[in-house]
Input
Amino acid sequence: MLKIRYSSRADFISLGAVGAVYKINDRIALKIPREADRNKFAIEIATYDTLERHRPPCPDIAQSFLRTPDANFLAFYSHGTLDKRIRSHQVRSNEVLGGRLLQVTELEPLNLVHQWAMELSSGAAWLESLGLAHADLRPPNLLLDGQDHLKIADFDCVEAIGTLASGGAPPWARFCGPEGGDESGTFGKNGARVEQFSIGSILYFMSRGYEPYDDGAMWPRGPEIVDLMMDMQFPPIGEMDVDMTIQRCWRGEYLMLKDLANDTKLLHGAFSLPRAASFDDQYCKHAREECRKLVESGLLRSFDRTF
Output
């Protein structure tokens, strides 16, 4: 595991596939790469360089204040990941692979789910407008700020729209079925179809309190889910406002992500709750200067990037 020599300077938050994240203070988090994953980390750095050139910034994207080849200084979002939030309401059996779902003790308010749906789809649509696909939309890569606004994070898998999709694990990514023609059996090409499928599964997770196919009836999960998704045998949904959106996402009915974003803006919680705002330029300037001083103080030398 990645270690920090001077723990008084940062608090460990999480360890991901590409690197580790630390809390520096109530404003700033620091992401540093594994030695073996610098190429993936470079994708995130380059992506943020691209995003920063487009003004105004999108309020649904996690803010980066300062980047070096060895570090990404980000805004600290105090409510953690969407994944941790939803799973905190689950009771599971003591089995391998996380255990079978036994109970969901609490559901998030539907208005808040509507807000998250709008923020997620709006952020993805903004990336689409720049010719980019996040390509790894999953609950662990979605952050919640202190007011429970959702932010898309982790840009180490970003790919250009129109390129072959690298895909991911079910239920966040799907192999094309017979409807895909020549793309059947592949993840297809990056774009609205691939991204909206991920969003549909995330909306299901938000509104049900568990992943698609994870209601406790199917055990173990895995290859069966891949086959079910290829055949478009999706979990049943009801008549909640968000359910039609989930179904349309799973079936790839939105030609562009901006169409999905426009739909979610009509959900009650999307316009009844306060809209998120980006940090203003002055705040970002002060935060960036604080990050530069941290670099100059030798903070980055206090981390061991070997695992």
